[in-house]
# Entry
Amino acid sequence: MAQLVFITGASSGLGQVLAARFYAAGWNLALIARRVSEVKSWASQHQIDVARFKIYSADVSVPAEIVAAALACIDAQGLPDVVIANAGISIGMDSGVFADIEVMQRTFATNNIGLAATFHPFVDAFVRRGRGKLVGIGSVAGIRGLPGHGAYSASKAAVIAYCESLR
# Structure
């Protein structure tokens, strides 16, 4: 039986690269995205076998949506072997501009709360099963802040610390 990987942020970029690599290695895919049509188009272009993947619609910044997607995955495809919390955003901000505080709030809602909510449905199940991997996507920006990207850099520092604490 093929292994299963659960990947958030599968509608573009690293999410699609990860999906392609796991698929090529024989894994089944649970692909989570806000933009489902983008994932469908990508899967069609790459001739991904419809029997080996399922798409779940969710905005990771809304914990109830990502938890519902995770539970739907478990119900439809079984408990994944690997969960990759890849969904993330990077928006420039200036802390001197009050409206940009909302940028930071949105960034943390996606990059941090979304990551924790992504992992939530799987933690106890992995412990009961005795195996499973949770993967959070960090960045060098989490170690060395990027000018004009305080929200992104702070969020990735939090991803690194959060994942270290889980380990």
Summary: Residues 76 and 112 are 26 Å apart (CA to CA). Helices lie at 13-24, 36-45, 63-77, 100-129, 150-166. The radius of gyration is 16 Å.
